[in-house]
Amino acid sequence: MSETREVIIIGSGPAGYTAAIYLGRAGLKPLVVAGALTPGGQLVNTTEVENFPGFPDGIMGPELMENMQRQAERFGAELVYDDVESAELDGETKTVHCSGGDTYTARTVIVTTGSYYRHLDVPGEEEFGGHGVSYCATCDGFFFRGKPVVVVGGGDSALEEANFLANLAESVTLLVRRDEFRASKIMVDRTLANPKITVLMNTVADRINGDKQGVTSVSVRNTATDGEEKLEAKGVFVAVGQVPQTAFLGGQVALDERGYIQVEGASTRTSLPGVFAAGDCADPVYQQAISAAGTGCRAALDVQMYLDELEA
């Protein structure tokens, strides 16, 4: 147990590091529990990032996160490479327990633990991750301009990805596991009316195939007939949902039905005083690095206002 700090940031990535930069510049010396295995969040596993402002030629995801980390440390942030197992967040002093055995206390906590994409868990998915397999059409669709792609999923997010990609790709094949969509009627109508999108119902991806250049095809199976075929594809976009990393909170703050942290309006305040949330763990809609960074800034400013009110 160390001294009680002003603020602990649980998680890293664009939201956590941005919050740390702002809080460090404010002289609050934030402690960032950045994660044991993947500090920097999902961008650490991303290749080139072309849509983050300020990098006209793009930047590699790991490099962007390393730059943010160094900037946070420059202004006095302290990083701990560990995972938070549990926390007691009610009351004036918040306590955070890490898997390595250390315990930290603070007057405020910002949760920036993000979310992770659900995977198909089929052969080739991991092998071709970042080389044809993507979980974000907005991030990576540009690389597949004029090429055939496959989208997997039957919800609103999958259909949104398919329609977005239809503006870029040569063709889009949408694989829907069941005999009906989970998406809203307006999204289904829009998708079925798009001449560049082919919908295969009762169809799952069994294998993603490729070579040294990346993905070349997808082996699919019809669950009703057991018929198999191979679809040509240069890109596979997996859109079967995301899981916010909020289980460690133990239900102490209000979550929505999918497990995302609920915040008050445009702020980052949660249902517990002194606890704030930023980034993908509190954002079921946008899930972008730049929007996560923006909420990290908001969280830092919200923390400063909260601490000022305590001293008033």
From TrEMBL:
Cofactor: FAD
Keywords carried by this UniProt record: Disulfide bond, FAD, Flavoprotein, NADP, Oxidoreductase, Redox-active center
GO MF annotations in UniProt: thioredoxin-disulfide reductase (NADPH) activity
GO annotation terms (biological process): removal of superoxide radicals
Reactions catalysed according to its record: [thioredoxin]-dithiol + NADP(+) = [thioredoxin]-disulfide + NADPH + H(+)
Keyword hit for Membrane: no
Entry-linked PANTHER family: THIOREDOXIN REDUCTASE 1-RELATED-RELATED
Subunit structure: Homodimer.
Family: Belongs to the class-II pyridine nucleotide-disulfide oxidoreductase family.
Protein name (record): Thioredoxin reductase
Species assigned in the record: Bifidobacterium cuniculi
